[in-house]
Amino acid sequence: MPAKNSARKSKKTAGEKLREKEDPKIIAQKIRRIGEEIVGDINKHKDPEFVTQQRGRGNVEFDEKDKLLTLGDKTTTRNFLNIGHARKFMQTMIVSAKTHEYLEENKTAAIREIYYELKHTIGGSKENTFEEQTESDGVIVDLEHAVNSIREKLNLHANPKGTLYGDITLRDRKHNNDTFNAGKLGRGGWSIMSRVEPEEIEILKVDANYVLVIETEAMYERLVEEDFAKKNRAILVSTGGQAARGTRRLIHRLHMEAKLPVYMFTDGDPYGWYIYSVIKQGSMALAAHSDLLAVPGAKYIGMTLDDVETYELKNVTERMKEGDIKRAKEMLEYPWFQNSEWQRQLKKALSEKIRIEQQALANKSLSFVADEYLPKKIKAKDFLP
Amino acid sequence: MPAKNSARKSKKTAGEKLREKEDPKIIAQKIRRIGEEIVGDINKHKDPEFVTQQRGRGNVEFDEKDKLLTLGDKTTTRNFLNIGHARKFMQTMIVSAKTHEYLEENKTAAIREIYYELKHTIGGSKENTFEEQTESDGVIVDLEHAVNSIREKLNLHANPKGTLYGDITLRDRKHNNDTFNAGKLGRGGWSIMSRVEPEEIEILKVDANYVLVIETEAMYERLVEEDFAKKNRAILVSTGGQAARGTRRLIHRLHMEAKLPVYMFTDGDPYGWYIYSVIKQGSMALAAHSDLLAVPGAKYIGMTLDDVETYELKNVTERMKEGDIKRAKEMLEYPWFQNSEWQRQLKKALSEKIRIEQQALANKSLSFVADEYLPKKIKAKDFLP
């Protein structure tokens, strides 16, 4: 994958950056326009076609200026009269029509629901519209790209995961204007929704110095228990492993909209570092959506393999597994890991072949992470880029 | 495993039913007493021993009267001077001492944290206290049984998972007495903590007809979106698959303490039915803890394979996998599935070899589950036992 140094051109199908806020009516119109063009083609006895951005590594670029992953300008055209395209064309049409309906009727659906809702045997045939959810999922991604937005703005969503805690007041405009502070829900916190678009979920007030994003639910509970958020004026977000889209979107908004620094705290292993990199510059699979999902300004606070030495944690490390070794080798090559700090860290991992978990800090004491490890690093700005 | 028809005898080590509420000081004293007895043995030059309940299928019984799984009266004795027991004896002692410290100091820890906190190389040797977390986990279970309580009351916990939504007001006594209503947190809901013991988390008020426990987060989001809780005066709990202990404890309390009926809604497959059975009568692995975790009065609302016919959903079923077939065969034999309804359902699954997901109801329409499927079943009391 090439690392391009040029500023991004208007290479999106719709020719513009993705918008943080966009009226559902505008999105519905874009979908409608696609349909109208196809009807126009049919009326003109032309082969109807559907154009979307080409995905996959061959069209993914790392934007050195904006520091995020993005898609190149290659497009894919699907023709109804091409026998290899016809099935997918049909699927694209029914998903587009249903999504348009959701937007018009102010409904939302999980991507698994739209799959089930549209699955049926086509009249007069033995052909099902879909056999597997992967088919409808692929078509949804096509449509997101074709209208230059993200599925959440098409009223679609994946499963929720992740928790929010701290002195932040949110309002849900679609739920009686519920207004609540995520630091006043006991130690449980707020369960982050699958869709947290600004049109519906408003960030009313945040009183914090930074956002600390935490890989494991257990470490999140530790920090809540230690009253870390209050003592350090921090917002805590736990991702529970790889972050769900709703959680990525919320972190992105806390950074962009509420202007908070974002520090990421994961296990010290290639998988944790990869979770960080997805939060920071986006993922290859969703490169076109980085505008709304990535947090290029995020910093990495730990764990690092240097922590193992600094805090004498050798005894509570584990051997890296094959998958981690493979991942570390791949990461060494990614353009966004081409800086001396990460190159050194990844090479260290590959040479020592050990990993360290966040919770291993309990080896010092339960409160060590909250009283020493994190505050010290934040004070010294001891981050990886 | 035998299905005993006798009322439970006082066969627990401590000779009594588990208590919903118990002063941490009492638990600390019980641990202290174990330590004192061992010190006494040492002073008398006797071989110190640690006694706990025997676990595993050989000692699990189904209590026909209370309708829950329970442990028989077999015990296991571990002697320090037995070379095969010495390591585990040492582990039991350090976990007991540390747990006692947590209780005295009002600290809580995840079971992974206590593992890391106690892991070290024993002075003058190359022996580590633990090599794997499974070792400390096993010792924790021994200790829970020895003091006749659950780990949550020993200030230990596993990872949190699960979400709560509806007109229920909770208070967290250990967090500024935060008082909040889980129906006023937008559509996200409250992220259920890993420990929800009544000593800390109080159920102040519930305004509901029943609790609906939902297997998938996605179906939970659907029901929230449809305003199901308000329209039906229901409390919604999503488990996100197999329920975490904190979530089981909360459902148990809603049933026992707030006297609410509990209806369970899972995918229509042996795995979903198994999740239900663990909620209802407890699990074999934690048979001694059913008093505080099980909900013997729970009912099963769906999905069933009859739903497939009633609602013409054949087209959105899937083939059962090998694991499901194996599980269904095992479940046929369990004493608590010895009733005509479940025998019929399990045999139907084994003969048709299909499964149906909750979300497949979207095939009717997105709101079908909320407007028709659930209300109709609840009105007709169309449950499986």
From TrEMBL, chains A, B:
Residues 13-24 have a biased composition (Basic and acidic residues). It is an enzyme of class 5 (isomerase). Its EC number is 5.6.2.2. Residues 87-155 form the Spo11/DNA topoisomerase VI subunit A N-terminal domain. Mg(2+) binds at E215, D267. It catalyses: ATP-dependent breakage, passage and rejoining of double-stranded DNA. It comes from the Archaea. The active site is at Y116 (o-(5'-phospho-dna)-tyrosine intermediate). Residues 1-12 have a biased composition (Basic residues). Its cofactor is Mg(2+). Residues 210-378 form the Topoisomerase 6 subunit A/Spo11 TOPRIM domain. InterPro entries: Spo11/TopoVI_A, Spo11/TopoVI_A_N, Spo11/TopoVI_A_sf, TopoVI_A, TOPRIM_Topo6A/Spo11, WH-like_DNA-bd_sf. GO terms for biological process: DNA replication; DNA topological change. Keywords: ATP-binding, DNA-binding, Isomerase, Magnesium, Metal-binding, Nucleotide-binding, Topoisomerase. GO terms for molecular function: ATP binding; DNA binding; DNA topoisomerase type II (double strand cut, ATP-hydrolyzing) activity; magnesium ion binding. CDD domains: TOPRIM_TopoIIB_SPO. Pfam families: TOP6A-Spo11_Toprim (PF21180), TP6A_N (PF04406). Residues 1-24 are annotated as: Disordered. One of its GO terms (cellular component) is chromosome. Belongs to the TOP6A family. PANTHER family: MEIOTIC RECOMBINATION PROTEIN SPO11 (PTHR10848:SF0). Homodimer. Heterotetramer of two Top6A and two Top6B chains. Relaxes both positive and negative superturns and exhibits a strong decatenase activity. This is Type 2 DNA topoisomerase 6 subunit A. The lineage of its organism: Archaea, Candidatus Iainarchaeota, Candidatus Iainarchaeia, Candidatus Iainarchaeales, Candidatus Iainarchaeaceae.
